[in-house]
Amino acid sequence: MQAKYPLKVQTIRTKGSKPRYYVYLPMPLAAALGMRSGEQVHWELLDRGELRLVRDEPPSPGGQETERPQGQGEGK
Q: pLDDT below 50 — which residues of the chain?
């Protein structure tokens, strides 16, 4: 399995808004992690050269999804 996925940071420029930066998650990496569309994640800044992407609700060990009680995890 490939451990590195080089990519470029892209800029999104919308008229009347400040530029935003965009980084995508390569499909092979997303598949290996079992990521789902719409899954909530956040960045942690470790230092000027390293970021960590953290899943807000990682899957349970063994790959079995546990059902979340209604009303939890929304509006973060």
A: 66-76
